[in-house]
Amino acid sequence: SQSIVIHIIIGYLYYHFSDYENAFIHYGIALSLLDETNLLTSELYNHIGDVWSNIDNVDNAISCYQQALHIGNQNNIFQSDIHQKILLKKKNSIQNPTDERQINNIDEHDRSIINLDNEIQLKNYQNQLNAEHNLTSIQRIDLSYQIGLCLMRKDDSPQALEIFLKTKQMLINEQLDDENNPTSIQCVDLSYQIGLCLMKKGDFPQALQSLLQA
Question: What global pTM score does this model have?
Answer without folding.
Answer: 0.58
